[in-house]
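Let us begin with a simple case.
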Amino acid sequence: MAVPVLIRMMRLPNLVLIALTMYLVRGCLLNVPFTLNEIDFFLLTLSLVLLAAAGYLINDYYDCVADRINKPQQQWVGTAISKGMVLRWYWIFNAGAVILGFYAAYLIGNIVCGILQPVTALLLWFYSFVFKRTFLIGNGIVAAITTLPTVTVAWFEPRVIASINGLSGSLRCILFYSFFAFVTNLIRELIKDIEDIKGDEAMGCKTLPVVWGIQKATNILLGLCMVLVFLLGCIQGRYMSLTSFPFWYFTVAIQLPLILLLYVLFKARDSSDFYRASRMCKLLMLAGVLSMLLPQWIQAFGGFTGQ
């Protein structure tokens, strides 16, 4: 029974989204010749997938007490799977991620780039052990780490980094999607804090809803959603024609769900409402990632003259 539980703890849909994001960034946003070949890029992608899997495992490891209150049906560590097994796989995944990261760094001729994986692993551990229980710091760390699927592709592509002073089209697109990932994940992390407030209070955590209350935390979420709606609207008005498919994709697949999320948060009264809002954020992330498949939008925003 331990293996199926271990797989569930790794959040396979999230790992698939990480890999999908990296391949779409490489295939749709990079307007430079690739340095890494297909096999080596797969190994780089695998390093991030392993990092994320390790992060989920160590998070559940330290959250086993709070999960008895917040999610008793998903409290597996110490029951369905031993703590020792969780730690063993945590170290195996991290070791694999670090080795693959330094291998990719060696291939591009800049071994320093390999520090990304160990630094990320360390941050994920500190988040689970310390920062998750602090006021806003943990939320910011996780939101920043979720930009890695886009940032890593540029980090391991010397031609993109070399053009940073000129803010190339590829880099501009990567920064946009990194910002979108940061804000949507920050919103989701704050929603999850509200959803888990009972267990967090019992553990003595100082999350935003615990310190300021659910209503103030919800108001901040509403503000973040409205800022995102406004900024995306500005981008649509600047880079998309009203009659173009990208405009209507952003409107139907991203803007309308964002407005619906605003409504759900405004009306939210119990944990089931916030759970629904959290699921909506996941769909928003997927819709944002899939927008990379719109060449008309990417070329207009990135200033590409051709792929």
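The second case is a distinct protein. As before, the sequence precedes its structure tokens.
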Amino acid sequence: MKLFIKSQFIIFLFFFIFLIIGILEWQEVFKVRKEYKIISEERISIENDSYLLALWEKIPNESFGISENIFKIYALDNNQIFNLFEKNERFISYEIKDIDKNGTPEIVLELSTGGNCWQCTWIEILKIKNKKVEKVRIDYPERWMEKWIIPERLIDLDNDGIEEIIALDTRWEFYKDVCHACSPAVDVIFSLKDGVYRISSRKFPNFYEDKIKSLEKILEENLHQKYSTSNEAYYFGNLISLLLNYIFKGEKEKGLLEFQKYADKYNFESKTLKEEIENIKTNLNRWISENYIDKLIK
């Protein structure tokens, strides 16, 4: 009898020790430095496996209160926890959504460095498969384009239930040394096919037509304002934007005509801006090629 009790005690002791070790391991994996506080936890199930999404926020410091978020994805397996993914950034938020309507949710991260620039805010789409976290791939015509075509948001443009990526071509920021607010802008559209986002801008002419109408209105209003250097740069930026949106819509020739019309209406004084306008008028195809626009509109 005493031997039985002793053996039961030893079994219980070993069980207790393993339980404590398991708890400590869980805490070790899950912990974040004390200057952070957890702001959200969410459990999700994918392929019958359980995962925990956790987001921390840095507690403001009176002397040096820079914000920072930490986002983590953990796999949960029989009272054990495994860190699968971690992202640190100034600001992070996330959304769980089934973007391809296959019954398995993806995780859309919205990230920001907190700066005032076009590359300071972007999204990343994550998928979990076979207990691994991967980014949903975007097929850029050239790999180096990933540095300046920045995914910004998801929108279902054709109402098929699958969301397109709207990405901003950030190369045009400060083009010809114009100000941030004056910079030309154009969006590149990507559609999901076979698990990969591929360029599909030409499939959405109405998207670019709405941009064109808005830009034409801005240009007309700008013509009636008193001249200033900033006014000139703002007009120039919107003029280039108008041309770019026509090109992405698939109406290059019409875009050049509209570009010339609005350029001739404005009395540019800047030598740099006038030379660029003449350069575009003289050889639009070369300008398109030199700026790699042709790679984005196929």
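The first helix runs from residue 2 to 30. Residues 12-29 have pLDDT under 50 and may be disordered.
Keep these points in mind for the review questions at the end of the chapter.
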